[in-house]
Write a structure and sequence with these properties.
The chain is of the alpha/beta class and 408 residues long. The protein has helices spanning 21-35, 44-52, 66-88, 103-114, 130-141, 152-169, 198-208, 226-230, 241-257, 273-280, 305-311, 313-321, 334-350, 361-371; strands at 9-14, 39-43, 93-97, 120-126, 179-184, 189-193, 217-221, 266-269, 287-288, 355-359, 388-395, 398-405. The chain binds 6-O-phosphono-beta-D-fructofuranose (F6P).
């Protein structure tokens, strides 16, 4: 499902504090991990907190303070050494999360990586919108270990002083020979310079669709179908009476939940009858997408699990052993589904209005796995019961989750 990488990719974050670098680094890691890549973030701030304690005052970050500067350089090097060691053991995409805010610092990083045959892509996050910085500081920095137990006003003042120190030394990325991506105001504008290859290009597209406006994402399977009653996989069955009952409850629930949203939701469903009937009962017209269709059970379509075990015992064993990679004869594996659902993930990320997805067991597992940061191996066994709607609100570092069981 994933394209092999000719060589490991190293993304080097660049930007002043509170420009969303860590947010972007973690989003990228989560996206890549869900795709099946070995990806890892090396955050220099964590090295500082682990080695020197969390409570360094703003003066520590003053570029004219030689001790602070030497200590910060040593931390940056330690993180880079660990990144390189990790790449040597088979890491595929490493993200170096630090300010890297001067040309000299970036040249050192580039030189060190070149010794390993690696060429970085710099990912600079810049903000022209002061409100975005302020919101980022309030949402993430004031609750970070750096300011634990500090009163918010003095924490805010200290953080502003820290930013001011970095601003004095800051040099934007501008190397015409290097590869870089500049992200202005988290996705409002993107500049990609000397970016080639499938994965880097995909990452640019992913980054250009991110934003930080909170909005809910509702995920649900269709109402109970006749095949659910018999335990049959696939097919294109009708809903049972119980399933139709869920459809009514779902519609009432969502109308109530979204009454104050201001904007109507985007409703997306698969092209299969059971999902179209469920989504079609909502007061907003759904868009039906093939990429949301249930995992294709191929030759086993319409069979029960017992029939599969009796008629294709080898397949049943192979699936139990590796449910992620097992592909039904002439059908799909979970890895195939992850690949096919990936554009929908980017579309959901892009939306600022609420999104409602009405799909199927395997497809909802895949979407839920992405938004909650699961490994691909976990995805095929996630619990997604019928007649339950899951509400996720993506936050800076994860998603808030609520589940509502709706009768009957
Ligand atoms: O049983 C309902 C269903 O949506 C089937 O159509 C599909 O094959 C199955 O769930 C996916 O779940 P699992 O991968 O656990 O078999």
């Amino acid at each position: 499902m994933m394209f092999p990488l000719a060589r490991p990719l190293v993304l080097v974050m660049v930007g002043l504090p509170a420009r969303g670098k860590t947010y972007l680094a973690r989003k990228l890691t989560r996206y890549l991990t869900w795709h099946g890549y070995r990806a890892e973030v090396f955050n220099v701030g964590n090295y500082r907190r682990a080695r020197l304690g969390a409570d360094q005052p703003a003066t520590f970050f003053d570029p004219s303070n030689p001790e602070g500067r030497a200590a910060r350089e040593a931390l940056a090097e330690a993180a880079l050494d660990d990144l390189i060691a990790w790449v040597r053991t088979g890491g595929q995409v490493a993200i170096y999360d630090a300010t890297n805010s001067t040309r000299a610092r970036r040249a050192t990083v580039r030189r060190r990586l070149a010794e390993e045959g690696l060429e970085p892509i710099f990912v600079e996050s810049a903000t022209t919108d002061a409100a975005l910085v302020e919101a980022n500081v309030r949402e993430t920095k004031l609750s970070s270990p750096d300011y634990r137990d500090k009163d918010p006003d003095s924490a805010m003042a200290d953080f502003r002083a820290r930013i001011a120190h970095y601003e004095r030394a800051y040099e934007p990325v501008d190397d015409p020979d290097g590869s870089f991506v500049k992200i202005i105001d988290i996705g409002r504008k993107i500049i990609a310079h000397r970016i080639s290859g499938y994965l880097p290009a995909q990452l640019v597209s992913y980054l250009s669709n991110l934003h930080v406006t909170p909005r809910p994402i509702y995920l649900t399977r269709h109402g109970e179908s006749e095949y659910n009653l018999d335990g049959r996989v696939g097919g294109d069955p009708e809903l049972t009476d119980r399933g139709l009952g869920y459809v009514r409850h779902l519609s009432q629930f969502l109308q109530r939940a979204l009454a104050e949203a201001g904007e109507p939701p985007q409703v997306w469903c698969s092209t299969l009858r059971r999902a179209m009937i469920t989504a079609g009962a909502l007061p907003w017209s759904p868009v039906s997408l093939r990429s949301l269709d249930e995992i294709d059970a191929g030759a086993c379509d319409g069979w029960t699990y017992d029939e599969i075990a009796a008629r294709l015992p080898e397949d049943a064993r192979a699936r139990a052993h590796d449910k992620l990679r097992y592909r039904y004869p002439r059908g799909e594996s979970y890895l195939d589904v992850i690949q096919r659902v990936q554009p929908v993930v980017v579309e959901i990320e892009r939306q600022r209005a609420p999104v409602v997805v009405v799909a199927h067991n395997a497809v909802i597992r895949v979407l839920y796995g992405y938004f909650t940061g699961r490994l691909p191996e976990e995805v095929p066994r996630l619990e997604i019961p019928l007649h339950t709607i899951i509400r996720l609100v993506p936050k800076a570092y994860g998603a808030d989750e609520q589940r509502f069981e709706l009768g009957p």
